[in-house]
């Protein structure tokens, strides 16, 4: 005759773990957390070591950026004065009036190099909607894109949103994913 399931050895070996002592700090789930939920909850010496390590990593990244990225290829100034004679002639790079230029700006190739070095990738969650609108020949007057920077495990590290109004006849210069 068969034994009842509760009497089998396999199920008996997997019993409930003992409950945590009453006076120990418990997390939100009712269990003791192995890892602190806040960096301020870790021991002071560990926290100081982590801060120092992050400072050193930050300085190493800054030095790598200075050594690797090239001006006018990876970063530079953008000419912003459309009334400038050089801009009207299609040669804004010849303009020597510094008030016509933006502050130092990171260009797409520079951003891609930094993302690659950090092991991050870019994801545009709403880009598909714009592609569908273009395929169905819907009129697009404003473009608003959300950009997410993700780690290799898919965790979102940073995000941003950019928008642009449509200028008639210039859609190709505005929509470059």
Automatic annotation (TrEMBL):
<feature type="compositionally biased region" description="Polar residues">
    <location>
        <begin position="28"/>
        <end position="37"/>
    </location>
</feature>
<protein>
    <submittedName>
        <fullName>Uncharacterized protein</fullName>
    </submittedName>
</protein>
<feature type="compositionally biased region" description="Basic and acidic residues">
    <location>
        <begin position="1"/>
        <end position="10"/>
    </location>
</feature>
<feature type="region of interest" description="Disordered">
    <location>
        <begin position="1"/>
        <end position="40"/>
    </location>
</feature>
């Amino acid at each position: 005759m068969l034994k009842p399931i509760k009497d089998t050895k396999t199920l008996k070996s997997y019993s409930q773990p003992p409950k945590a002592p009453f006076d120990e700090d418990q997390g939100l789930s009712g269990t003791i957390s192995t890892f602190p939920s806040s960096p301020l909850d870790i021991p002071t010496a560990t926290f100081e070591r982590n801060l120092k390590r992050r400072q050193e990593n930050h300085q190493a990244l800054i030095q790598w950026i200075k050594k690797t990225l090239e001006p006018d290829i990876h970063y530079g100034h953008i000419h912003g004065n459309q009334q400038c004679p050089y801009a009207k002639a299609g040669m804004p790079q010849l303009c020597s009036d510094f008030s016509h230029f933006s502050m130092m700006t990171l260009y797409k190739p520079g951003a891609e190099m930094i993302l690659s070095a950090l092991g991050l990738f870019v994801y545009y969650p709403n880009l598909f909607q714009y592609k569908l609108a273009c395929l169905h020949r819907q009129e697009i007057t404003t473009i608003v894109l959300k950009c997410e920077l993700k780690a290799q495990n898919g965790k979102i590290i940073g995000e941003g949103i950019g928008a642009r109004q449509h200028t008639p006849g210039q859609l190709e210069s505005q929509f470059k994913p």
